[in-house]
Amino acid sequence: MLNDISLLSIEQEIAEITDIYIKNKVMPNNPTGDALHLAIASYHKCDYLLTWNCKHIANANKFGHIKRINTLLGVFIPNLITPLELLGEHINE
């Protein structure tokens, strides 16, 4: 199923975005964790960042902070959703 899915590259700008997320306490201090995932999705303008992580990513209380930082950085703001939310959107179509 995933044979035609391409991998997203990790450019230097993604490392910089990741550092900014951590410095601004958008994400925990783990540069290979949540901050990196969000930076990749934002940099590559992914429509969705699909995650079960409701503590740091798919969290309505965090979204305002993420949106503010991404806007200041001039990077895309992906939809941060859980698999259940994504399935629900497609079930209702």
Number of strands: 2
Strand content: 5-15%
The helix fraction, in percent, is: 40-55%
Could you tell me the radius of gyration in angstroms?
Answer: 13 Å
Mean pLDDT: 88
Number of domains: 1
Separate helix tally? 4
Determine the N-to-C terminus distance.
Answer: 23 Å
Lateral strand order in the biggest sheet = 1-2
Largest sheet properties? 2 strands, parallel
The dominant shape is globular
Which descriptors apply to this entry?
93 residues; 2 strands; mainly alpha; 4 helices; 48% helix; single chain; 6% strand
Descriptive report:
The protein has helices at residues 12-23, 34-43, 60-73, 83-91; strands at 48-50, 79-81. The chain is mainly α. The protein has one domain (12-91). The chain has a two-stranded parallel sheet with strand order 1-2. The protein is globular and about 35 Å long. The two termini are 23 Å apart. The mean pLDDT is 88.
What does the secondary structure layout of this molecule look like, with pairings?
Layout: H1 12-23, H2 34-43, E1 48-50, H3 60-73, E2 79-81, H4 83-91
Parallel strand pairs: 1-2
Helix pairs in contact: 1-2
Can I get a quick summary?
By secondary structure, this protein is mainly alpha-helical. It has helices at 12-23, 34-43, 60-73, 83-91; strands at 48-50, 79-81.
